């Protein structure tokens, strides 16, 4: 395979391209879904293909296809060159790339048990055991449940005309459960997920009490929770909500392709104070075993620890080869592609707020009336407007400095930079708790997010009742 990719690179340079990148990606994956105790989905898949990207006369061209042979590689190269030629007429400015030093390496995920060696029946049995454990804690109120398991092995080889020749192998394993409870009038749900760069050992070490049983108990508990209030309150986020806010509200805006396109609120703000001095935000591709980590990105650049905000000051962005050239800085290993069929985009890895020094108890005691949110579920951001919404699995009212009644059906919304500036306490605890798939331009990439508890001085809470 190495020889084929090098052949494509060399032929591309001979044909006049100023930059050539050839990638080969091979994948094996398994996906199982149990719905209400029945097998709803059993899926095993394998894929292998090439992606070829060229920069010719200031324009990009990309082509991809299944399989990997010298003949096919040459066909894809010709198609990529033709695509570059066709795109020249409509371009507004010439495409550019930042050159990086040549690099050769082969790396792989550390794991104990290759999930590909585990029979499908054993994977089904493990999921069914978790399902039964959750039902046993549902007090007869669980009306639906969905449990899923997934594992994937991927080998990506990147060769480019800067001299990069790197192969990365990854193994990722995940389990997810959602339990729905009802008392005949209302319906509530709770969700748990475990995902890491790990093998089958993730499932062997998964305790039902912390997974399916916990989700079932929480779903039942939410039936007796009151509806969330609406209005402006001091708000404390648990680590999962902190991660959701960091990923959605700040992370996407710090992807440099948004800055280049003029759709980020961070455009022109490098060196400016954009958050509370208590806030340091990092995107770190090197966290051992984390779902969003990687050694090299899809452009052959080493992943690294990228400080985005330091003590409230915007000090960096996430970059690909192209955005680094556009903004006159160095690439930092943020160019990721879902597989061979997609070109690299600027993407996050593991994004979080650094822990502070304040215990959660101290954060609570200063609040006469507020909201404590737990269990991040989903979020959305309007990058160009600087607005975000985050939905929580639930939470508690804070009254006179203590946690009071449980609440449900709660979300928060705000202005990104205003919210970051209003963070007035950051806890000393830390947790990476939001492993998932982030979508962008049709590509899903594994990412993780988290942080400490954070307190926001005032934030809009979306609920249905008065406090």
Would you mind describing this structure in some detail?
The chain is built from 10 helices and 24 strands. The chain is an alpha+beta fold and 467 residues long. It has 2 domains: 2-222, PmbA/TldD superfamily (PmbA/TldD fold, 2-Layer Sandwich); 226-462, no CATH class. Strands 1, 2, 3, 4, 5, 6 and 7 form a 7-stranded mixed sheet that branches. Strands 10, 11, 12, 15, 21, 22 and 23 form a 7-stranded mixed sheet that branches. Strand 6 and strand 7 (187-196) form a beta hairpin. Helix 1 (2-14) packs parallel to helix 2 and helix 3 (120-136) runs parallel beside helix 5.
Task: Please provide a brief summary of the model.
By secondary structure, this protein is α+β, with helices and mostly antiparallel strands.
Question: Could you list some keywords that capture this structure?
Answer:
seven-stranded mixed sheet, PmbA/TldD fold, 467 residues, globular, alpha+beta, single chain
| Proportion of residues in helical segments | 10-25%
Instruction: List how many beta strands DSSP finds.
Output: 24
Major sheet: size, sense and barrel closure?
7 strands, mixed
**How far apart are the first and last residues' alpha carbons, in Å?**
64 Å
Instruction: Estimate what percentage of residues fall within beta strands.
Output: 35-45%
Question: What Rg, in angstroms, do the CA atoms define?
Answer: 24 Å
Unreliable spans are none
- The computed structural class is alpha+beta
Mean pLDDT: 95
Overall body shape: globular
* Number of discrete helical segments: 10
Count of domain modules: 2
